[in-house]
Design goal:
mainly alpha
Length: about 120
């Protein structure tokens, strides 16, 4: 076996270990991961994914990286909203002139009255 192949196998083993750890921590089930992975171009079966996660199958680097991408994108979707900094809140309350709503641009001081 060439040295880069053994390195690839050891990297694959570590990717599988960390992927399974992440899936458990984030409560991502294998079916959901596989479906997302398949939708972004992955080409292994769900059975092969299971074998990879349990170190019974070595996958090509591209497939492993697509699994990592799928997991990371699922994690991003699951992420709760972030907590804003004070500057974020102030920026939202007082948008720069170019971000003002059309009514604010036409009547910045709110002097026009609305009649029913």
């Amino acid at each position: 076996m060439k040295s880069h192949e053994s390195d690839d196998a050891s990297v694959g083993y570590e990717q599988a270990r960390q992927l399974l750890t992440t899936m458990r921590a984030a409560n991502i089930d294998q079916g959901r991961l596989w479906l997302y992975f398949f939708s972004i171009g992955g080409s292994i079966s769900e059975f092969e994914l299971d074998a990879f996660l349990h170190h019974s199958l070595v996958l090509p680097r591209l497939q492993r990286d697509l699994l990592a991408q799928a997991a990371n994108e699922i994690l991003a979707e699951q992420a709760p909203p972030r907590v804003p900094y004070a500057a974020d809140i102030l920026r939202h309350r007082n948008p720069p002139v170019d971000e003002a709503t059309p009514n604010e641009r036409d009547d910045p001081e709110g002097k026009e009255t609305v009649e029913d």
